[in-house]
Amino acid sequence: MLKKFLRAIIGRKTEPQSTQGLFFNDNHSAFEYACEYMDCELVGNIPLPAIVLPGPEGKDPVITSSGCQRMLLKVCSNDGGFCVIADTAHPNGPRLRIGDLVCWVPFVYLEHLVQPGVDQRFGWCGFVLGTLKPTLNSSGWLGDQRFTK
Description:
Elements: H1 2-10, H2 17-20, E1 22-23, H3 27-37, E2 48-53, E3 62-63, E4 69-75, E5 82-88, E6 101-109, E7 124-137, E8 140-146
Parallel strand pairs: 5-7
Antiparallel strand pairs: 1-7, 2-4, 2-6, 3-4, 4-5, 6-7, 7-8
């Protein structure tokens, strides 16, 4: 009880500099850092950061008949990223725009989606769970807004 009271009055101790995190100026800088310095192994059900790219005719993600958003993503990888088409996990959430940093989770690989000469990773299907802030701390990327039912 006394500890809670003191924290309320004095505030929490600041964390050491090494655990406060990295704050990037923009989403593209955060994405490039992730590609260069982080483990970006593509494994089913393991989230990866991705950035929303312009869709057909350079437009933002489109809204499907289910209310979810469909978009072209560049997913983080150690070779600078690869493209996939993805939907949001649920219809309710932020309206995505070109350049947004998002959390993409691959769940199944569909070989028939990949044409000869196309990056094999294009066959991964997954969902966007939410947006990410361009902030990386000791537990991972800082989440922003989630998609819900």
